[in-house]
Amino acid sequence: MRQIDESDFGVATAPDEVRFERLLPGPVERVWAYLTEADRRRQWLAGGEMEPRAGGTAQLVFRHSEFTDEEPPARYREMNENGFLSEGRILAWDPPRLLAMTWPGEGEDSQVEFELFREGDRVRLVVTHKRLADRGEMINVSGGWHAHLAVLEAVLSGEKAQPFWSQITALEATYTGRFDRQ
Question: Activator of Hsp90 ATPase homologue 1/2-like C-terminal domain location, by residue (predicted)?
């Protein structure tokens, strides 16, 4: 299991935006498949079908029990056990380089952009979550992306992922402090 280092943390690039970078095992087509194919995506984030085109729908069915058997915090218990459907729209579809989509929130939709860059036999994944409603949402999605990307990295590396839910509260506290200093 890989140790977390400073480069794993998301960076606030604007008051309503956070960016993450991960260097993952390639090839780039494999990483693209884990972003876009429901059966692979459910292993680290959420299942659900995507229409492979700009303007298409992006269904994300969050059921964390599909990739962790750890007991969730009370506020996530129903989603963990029963699933939660989130439906967005594909904004950009340029395989295997760029995927962007809306991300439904409690007010206006935010946007998530996944960019893939070949680096030898590895792939740099850049995830940028934009148009976040407020600081609370920024902290929440930062902890979530951090933990989900750790699961993706473990899956792609053929390793056991760190416990998912036990990280969330600690990550949210860490991001609160980090964003206070930025």
Answer: 27-156
